[in-house]
């Protein structure tokens, strides 16, 4: 007995019988619980160990797919291994982004910095292909919502809005996690993909994947994923069940 919902467990059993496989997961809210300080969001106990088991499985690729830049994801998570690292919501796929994007992003920083500075507790995060306005630590929740509304109105049509949990990002590329996952699965010739995610941008991945894939929403909220677990402990249980099934 895995303790997982029976339909999810059955889907994982069917998934485990196929090869090659892609096991992909979002980071924040799935492998690490959410914290006020993004740099404090380290993996939950057991995550590094189960990922190490999964990468050892035969013809299984493990991908970490995040809104974070890859460099930040590597540093913050402390994870290392032969993973595929997909950062910046899919914009960082083959390696670091070019400098041209940085110039557009820096113009955005100049525009947003004074707007964010007016709201106590709000923070601007400068990422490889986007600027994120974080409001999780803002005590005045009305001011937090108003700030995100204002940022939304500042986004011109050349930018892609990436809403998330207490964050709104303006991205200078239109990359998304769904397109990135399809590209990766195609490259690998994957027979099936598992994807776990908790936030709005993970819905692109849930929608992009197909009937033979296993999509799992972590936590509450509307979703296009077929399965759900309640929290990071549930996500870890999924990965541990997979590692057992893959005999890793
Ligand atoms: O795609 P993900 O791996 O889920 O990354 C999404 C964003 O995660 C980070 O922000 C979120 O987590 C923070 C740490 O727990 C939290 O403080 C913040 O409120 C959340 O929105 C990260 O800082 C962003 O760059 C990512 O895009």
Automatic annotation (TrEMBL):
It is an enzyme of class 3 (hydrolase). Pfam families: Trehalose_PPase (PF02358). Keywords: Hydrolase, Magnesium, Metal-binding. Its EC number is 3.1.3.12. It catalyses: alpha,alpha-trehalose 6-phosphate + H2O = alpha,alpha-trehalose + phosphate. GO terms for molecular function: metal ion binding; trehalose-phosphatase activity. InterPro entries: HAD-like_sf, HAD_sf, OTSB-like, Trehalose_PPase. Signal peptide: none annotated. Pathway: Glycan biosynthesis; trehalose biosynthesis. Its cofactor is Mg(2+). One of its GO terms (biological process) is trehalose biosynthetic process. PANTHER family: TREHALOSE 6-PHOSPHATE PHOSPHATASE. Belongs to the trehalose phosphatase family. Removes the phosphate from trehalose 6-phosphate to produce free trehalose. This is Trehalose 6-phosphate phosphatase. It comes from Blastococcus colisei.
């Amino acid at each position: 007995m895995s303790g997982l919902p029976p339909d999810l467990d059955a889907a994982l059993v069917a998934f485990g019988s196929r090869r090659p496989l892609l096991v992909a997961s979002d980071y924040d809210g799935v492998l690490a619980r959410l914290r006020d300080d993004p740099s404090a969001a380290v993996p939950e106990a057991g995550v590094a160990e189960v990922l190490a088991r999964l990468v050892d499985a035969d013809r299984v690729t493990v991908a970490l797919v995040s809104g974070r830049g890859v460099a930040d994801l590597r540093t913050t998570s402390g994870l290392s291994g032969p993973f595929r690292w997909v950062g910046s919501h899919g914009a960082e796929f083959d390696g670091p982004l070019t400098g041209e994007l940085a110039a557009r992003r820096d113009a955005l920083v100049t525009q947003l910095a004074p707007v964010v500075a007016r709201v106590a507790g709000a923070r601007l995060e400068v990422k490889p292909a986007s600027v994120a306005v974080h409001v999780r630590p803002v005590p005045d929740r009305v001011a937090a919502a108003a700030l995100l509304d204002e940022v939304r109105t500042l986004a011109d049509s050349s930018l892609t809005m990436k809403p998330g949990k207490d964050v709104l990002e303006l991205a200078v590329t239109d990359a998304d996690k769904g397109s990135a996952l399809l590209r990766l699965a195609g490259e690998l010739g994957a027979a099936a993909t598992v994807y776990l995610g908790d936030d709005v941008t993970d819905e692109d991945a849930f929608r992009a994947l197909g009937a033979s894939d296993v999509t799992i929403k972590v936590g509450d909220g509307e979703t296009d994923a077929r399965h759900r677990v309640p929290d990071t402990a549930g996500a870890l249980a999924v990965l541990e069940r997979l590692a057992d099934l893959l005999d890793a």
